[in-house]
Amino acid sequence: MEWETVIGLEIHVQLATKTKIFSGASTAYGAAPNTQACAIDLAMPGTLPVPNRQAFKLAAMFGLAIDAPIARRSVFERKNYFYPDLPKGYQTTQLDEPIVGAGHIDIALDDGSEHRVRIHHAHLEEDAGKSLHEDYHGMSGIDLNRAGTPLIEIVTEPDMRNADQAVAFAKKLHALVVALGICDGEMSQGSLRFDVNISVRPKGQEELGIRTETKNLNSFKFMEEAIELEVERQISVIESGGTIRQETRLYNGDTKKARSMRSKEDSNDYRYFPCPDLLPVVLDDSFIAEVEAAMPELPEAKRARYTGDMGLSEYDAKVLTGDVATAVYFDAAVSAGAIPKLAANWIMGDLAAFLNRQELTIKQSPVTPAALAGLTQRIDDGTVNSKMAKAVFEGMAAGEGDADTVIEAKGLKQVSDSGALEKIIDEVMANNTQQVEGYRAAPEDKRAKMVGFFVGQCMKASKGQADPKQLNQLLVKKLNG
User: Fold this and answer.
1) 48-95 per-position pLDDT tens digit
2) pTM exceeds 0.85 for this model
3) What residues contact 355, with CB distance under 8 A and at least 6 apart?
4) For residue 216, which of 9, 6, 20 has the smallest C-alpha distance?
């Protein structure tokens, strides 16, 4: 039997606010355990939550980016469950009236087509704390620093059919929230976490199969592995005569194994009810106008600008906009006077290779955007050729100064003076009379390949500093003379 996979995602995006969603406690990452959880986060008697205006602004920015309606009225509910890292015994979240309505995100498939993933909604909520199991023998430690951190939970429709589509969507969403500035995107720190709902059904069947949810995947690689493993498991269970149980599962990226965590709850199990401590939040026209004014250039608009205004290829534009920091670096280089196509080539080529070797991010690059701009200008005006440019780049990366400083210090200026080049050519021809005679005796269609020998000799004589284009023109003229 042929099977079809059906995948939907729930994504927890940690919003880039300085304080928590209902208190003034810090959201900074890396503090000592339990030093950033205040009385409000712990729901101590006599405390009242106060909504964080910035959290609403960032959530609304996401809604505008996916062409979704922003609810002018949203309501918080209490989702009741008991777990050690949830000190209040309930999570303050949104259910019936979320801040962001239905929208969509389009992803590119390998065959060049586009696939639309519908967003059911996105709602605001607070994060729970963190349970720590590794360092405690037979016990668990609880760190409540994260309790109360603002999240938006994004819920997709079940529109993905394989792991590739799910990962493509996850990467597109990651790039979008980072480009918007609403999340730092640090998945290793828990800033973006994916819950994957998976079911299988016979091909052609309309009715959905029973789904499982694999929670808290924090890397694209783990997501792909977890989906493929769960699809294989479900098909095996059904074909062996068993039935799929609706459950929550966990995937271990180190062992490459998954296990059942608990049976999957329905909304009734959480006993939702409106939060009595929080009034409905109403957003007026001036707030929406403020959010619209704060919207940055989105990746798709940036790609269109790169291919349109700057003449880059679709591939170049896709790579440059695939990472926000890379796009920021490229824009800064162009603003500093870089030749766009040359800058793109260097960023995706030599600079990327250097950063990988040094295990640096582009934000940590010792070659600044302005320095790279200077190098592209010297290549464009013929001061250095491509080989010399690599030596200049190495000097800049080593902290020896900008392009002009390195060129001057190392004597890397390209020789383009026709008199100097002719002198080099004459010496090479005089030292290789047999090859000159062979060239002149050869048929016209064979001569083009033979020129390479003389070019190589001339470049060697000039220590690689001859202008290749001008050298080639003068060389052919003299050889044919």
Assistant:
1) 999 999 999 999 999 999 999 999 999 999 999 888 899 899 999 999
2) no
3) 361, 362, 364, 365
4) 9
